[in-house]
Amino acid sequence: MENKNLIRRGNKLFTKNLTPGINVYGEDTIFVDGVEYRYWDPFRSKLAAAILKNLDVELKDTDKVLYLGAASGTTISHVSDLVNRGFVFGVEISKRVAKQLYLLSMRRRNLAMLLADANKPRTYIKYVPLVDFVYQDVAQKNQVEIFKKNISLYLKKGGLGFLALKAKSIDVTRKPKAIYREVYKELLSEFDVLDYKVIAPFQKDHCVFVVQK
Amino acid sequence: MGIFFLNLLKIGTCNKFINYCCKHKTVVYILYSNADSIFVFHQNKDKLELIHSSEIFDKLRSLNIVNEESINKFIENYERKLEDELGIGKSKIIDISEVEDPALINQILAEASNRVGDEKLFSETKFVLERIEADKLKRIDEDKLIIQYNETLDQLTKVWNILAKRIREFLFVKSPELTLISDDELLIRELNAAPVESILEKYKLPNNLTINLNPQDEEEFKELIALAVEVHNRLERTRALLSEKVQRLMPKTSSIATPIIAAKLLMLAGSFEKLAMMPSSRIQLLGAEKALFRYLKTGGKLPKYGVLFQHPDILKSDKSKRGKVARKLASKISIALKQDYFGRAGH
To answer: Count H helices, E strands: chain B?
Structure first.
């Protein structure tokens, strides 16, 4: 992925810190030409893992992102770093972690959070505009359905959707590979599937997909 | 035909009306509001027209309290204004969330952000969301509090057990005879209340191995006991508060399942809503997830019960009947939960 706020050092990823001097979850920081960068751990973030696996995905400096399943804000803080001049809307259903996310959003000018159920995308229609990028990491049984619903409402034509699929939350008893194949076909029936990658060894039984509307 | 469908709208089958209008492109107005403005769109022969819009953000910002209620008030006022000025009645307006066609919603969202401008819209949305979401986050959930207390109770119990074990080990140095008292609570409360010699006398225990440690070690031992007693007192108070709270939130369930098990079920389900929606078969196996998935993966025996195992009805029933008792109990609990959930005040 090419993005001017993202740099690589060997096989380590770093994002340019939007809030210099403040880190989010105790991650390391480095300075390059006097600018602070935060280390992006592929074992904690599926997007970082996917980028290290050379996933073909484009996230521009000015993109507007809808992020479903933001949790306490580990990955979303890096997405907010990447889309420096864009905007990120984070949706999270659990109050406990949403409070952490809220505190994060207070510190970042391009991040807003919503306490809402991604399975009911129409409940946040007042506050989410059309976006260029939909990122989803929700670990629900109907995660593909949720992905499709949100894309159909909020993604611009030509925009990208990123789905982090957790095979174990669809069916623990089946082989992950069979589930990946099924989901691939299901996505292909509605979108162009640009790329997909299994992100082992960073995450077990996860596959990420990039689709274009 | 139109009047017929308007009547349908009033009695609540509005979706049919919307479907009809969207299909046949009859007069229907779509209301969309974002942080900046309220918009009214009208779809005519596949063309989307903006009929009217009204800015609300400046008014919102001047308010002391921005919440969903104040925004809804603006929308209500606006609807009244529409009826007075443009003659568009409430029955002709549908909310954007009721529009079925995602492509149409897409179009409306695009049109609205074009009019406001991205940068302005985002900063305004952030302002409004920061207030609305803080409001939502500040609401207290009684079920989440119960889960907190339950986990506190679990952890305090662990702390108590560790301390009791430590004190027993200590006693093997100081007074091994006392370890013949097998009840931890009794032993530690006695130790806290009286010196070792008088306890030995009271329980008619031999006094052959008891020694006196040097003052520093005696002090250490006493403080350890005081700590254990304090933990136990705390434990009992938390348990009483928990069972009182559970009985208030789910009176029927706790009378069937006992407050402690009701609280455990709540903890395992994650929230009252989730638990109330659960089928009784899942309630029966809550707490036996590990055994259930082992069964699903490798076969073997299907578990009969999870936390329900601690229920007196199951404990005292015949071993061959326990599965059946658990099943019946779970189904009764599931009914009681639904009564409690949907019958609670303010629902």
So the answer is: 17, 4
Q: Which of B126, B145, B267 to mutate to test the interface with A (most CBs of A within 10 A)?
A: B126
Q: Is A24 helix (H, G, I), strand (E, B) or coil?
A: coil
Strands (E), chain B: 29-33, 37-44, 47-55, 93-95
* pLDDT of res. B347: 65
Alpha helices in chain A (DSSP H): 46-52, 74-82, 95-107, 143-154, 167-170, 176-188
> Residue holding tokens 């401008």?
B117
**Is the minimum CB–CB distance between B333 and chain A shorter than 8 Å?**
no
Contacts of B125 in chain A (CB under 8 A): 112, 127, 129
Long-range Cβ contacts of B2-6 (<8 Å, 24+ apart): B2/B26, B6/B91
CB A78 within 8 A of CB A16: no
Burial class (CB in 10 A: 0-12, 13-18, 19+), A27: middle
B38, B78 in Cβ contact below 8 A?
Answer: yes
What whole-number distance in Å separates Cα of residue B305 and Cα of residue B329? 10
Q: How far apart are CA B266 and CA B270, in angstroms?
A: 6
**Domain residue ranges of chain A, discontinuous segments joined by +:** 42-212
Across all residues in chain A, what is the average pLDDT? 92
Strand order of the sheet with strand A29-32?
A6-9, A12-16, A35-40, A29-32
C-beta atoms surrounding B189 within 10 Å: 16
**Residue B234 clears pLDDT 70, i.e. is over it:** yes
DSSP, collapsed to helix, strand or coil, labels residue A191 as coil
The whole-angstrom separation of Cα A142 and Cα B293 is 20
* pLDDT, tens digit (0-9, with 9 covering 90-100), for B271-292: 999 999 999 999 999 999 899 9
Check if the beta carbon of residue B17 is closer than 8 Å to that of residue B26.
no
Query: Average of pLDDT values for B63-80?
Result: 86
Question: How many inter-chain contacts (A to B, CB under 8 Å) are there?
Answer: 76
B193 versus B85: the higher-pLDDT residue is B193
- In B, minimum Cα distance to A111 occurs at B126
Choice between B168 and B92, residue whose per-residue pLDDT is larger: B168
Q: Is residue A161 within 8 Å of A137, Cβ to Cβ?
A: no
- CATH number, domain A42-212: 3.40.50.150
Whole-Å CA distances, B5 to B19, B88, B194:
11, 17, 84
CA nearest neighbour of A14 among B118, A22, A4: A4
Q: What is the ipTM of this complex?
A: 0.89
DSSP state of A13: E
pLDDT of residue B9: 43
